[in-house]
């Protein structure tokens, strides 16, 4: 692909230059020059599509997010627009009125405490290296990966986040994903395929897994299973920033505890919406419209509309999003 050729050229140039690394980084595609990232960090993101920053969010903040999550699970707070998801394998018949039933919160933009995560200055400082100074928070999640019941429903198929987003350009979108406790291979840490962000958006659909797949958890149809993988083991407060084309997923949680993480997808406020008709994103477009129809009784809501009313400006000016 053009992108990976550019990356190879970059490496080739770097091999020939006797200049300081700062001069080299002027060739970067995926990050912006604002003197915040060290040249090595920018090069790492260019080549791999992710960047892990240790100890970025305080334990104190994480505890506050955890407490708010628990209040939501106990139904002590009502949050407009919040989507509460449960794992398909956890018995439908009995409602467990606490966090054991909840595998994910999505769209918490109306919860002031959880949304505070999206506005943390130390996170936005990194985000703007990818989006520029005008930043929209577009998609929010708190993931509470449940202990696997044996049916393997706690894993998340390999996917690219861009599949869910009807806006572009891809390299002005970034996810910040913060571990709310130690995440490791045992409890199902993120698994990434470094460098796949230089490719294109692939076709996604529900994987044909025994035991079932959770709603909306589409997976990449074809990727090279021999591609080297990196397991992102993280400590509480560590944050990984990654590109929306990076192929990633997570394995089963083989521990007794829940594995929590909080994340936000950001986009440059001057990104633009695209029509996904006739593209590989048409299936998710349909699904989102059906959900809007069922949940809010809304007819004729476009895929773009569902994003426009979730997006929140977190820094600078709202331009075209």
From TrEMBL:
Pfam families this protein is in?
PhyH
Tell me which EC number(s) this protein carries: 1.14.11.18
Cellular component terms (Gene Ontology): peroxisome
What does this protein need as cofactor? Answer: ATP; Fe cation; L-ascorbate
Q: Per UniProt, what is one GO molecular function of this protein?
A: L-ascorbic acid binding
**Positions of transmembrane segments:** none
Q: Which reactions is this enzyme annotated as catalysing?
A: decanoyl-CoA + 2-oxoglutarate + O2 = 2-hydroxydecanoyl-CoA + succinate + CO2; phytanoyl-CoA + 2-oxoglutarate + O2 = 2-hydroxyphytanoyl-CoA + succinate + CO2; tetradecanoyl-CoA + 2-oxoglutarate + O2 = 2-hydroxytetradecanoyl-CoA + succinate + CO2; 3-methylundecanoyl-CoA + 2-oxoglutarate + O2 = 2-hydroxy-3-methylundecanoyl-CoA + succinate + CO2
Q: In which pathway does it act?
A: Lipid metabolism; fatty acid metabolism
Q: Which InterPro entries match?
A: PhyH, Phytyl_CoA_dOase-like
The alphabetized UniProt keywords are: Dioxygenase, Iron, Metal-binding, Oxidoreductase, Vitamin C
Gene3D superfamilies found in the cross-reference section? q2cbj1_9rhob like domain
Q: Which GO terms describe its biological process?
A: fatty acid alpha-oxidation
Instruction: Fetch the SUPFAM superfamilies from UniProt.
Output: Clavaminate synthase-like
> Which PANTHER family did the record assign?
PHYTANOYL-COA ALPHA-HYDROXYLASE, PHYTANOYL-COA DIOXYGENASE, PEROXISOMAL
Family under the similarity heading: Belongs to the PhyH family.
This chain's protein is named: Phytanoyl-CoA dioxygenase, peroxisomal
> Whose protein is this, by species?
Periophthalmus magnuspinnatus
């Amino acid at each position: 692909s053009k992108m990976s050729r550019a990356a190879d050229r970059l490496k080739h140039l770097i091999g020939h230059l006797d200049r300081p690394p700062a001069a080299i980084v002027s060739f970067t595609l995926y990050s912006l020059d604002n003197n915040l990232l060290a040249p090595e960090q920018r090069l790492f993101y260019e080549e791999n599509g992710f960047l892990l920053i240790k100890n970025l969010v305080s334990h104190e903040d994480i505890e506050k997010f955890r407490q708010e999550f628990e209040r939501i699970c106990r139904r002590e707070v009502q949050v407009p627009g919040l989507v509460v998801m449960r794992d398909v394998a956890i018995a439908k018949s009995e409602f467990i009125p606490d966090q054991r039933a909840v595998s994910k919160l999505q769209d918490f933009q109306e919860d002031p405490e959880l949304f505070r995560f999206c506005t943390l200055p130390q996170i936005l400082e990194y985000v703007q290296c990818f989006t520029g100074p005008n930043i929209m928070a577009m998609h929010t999640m708190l993931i509470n990966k449940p202990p696997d019941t044996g049916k393997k429903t706690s894993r998340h198929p390999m996917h690219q986040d861009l599949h869910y987003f009807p806006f572009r350009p891809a390299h002005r979108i970034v996810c910040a994903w913060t571990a709310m406790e130690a995440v490791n291979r045992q409890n199902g840490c993120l698994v990434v395929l470094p460098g796949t962000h230089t490719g294109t958006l692939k076709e996604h659909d529900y994987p044909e897994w025994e035991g079932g797949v959770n709603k909306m958890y589409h997976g990449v149809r074809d990727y090279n299973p021999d591609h080297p993988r990196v397991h992102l083991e993280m400590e509480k407060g560590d944050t990984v920033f990654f590109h929306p084309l990076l192929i990633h997923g997570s394995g089963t949680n083989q521990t007794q505890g829940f594995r929590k993480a909080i994340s936000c997808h950001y986009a440059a406020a001057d990104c633009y919406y695209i029509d996904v008709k006739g593209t590989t994103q048409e299936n998710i477009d349909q699904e989102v419209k059906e959900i809007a129809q069922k949940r809010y009784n809304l007819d004729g809501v476009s895929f773009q509309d569902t994003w426009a009313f979730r997006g929140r400006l977190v820094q600078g000016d709202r331009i075209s999003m």
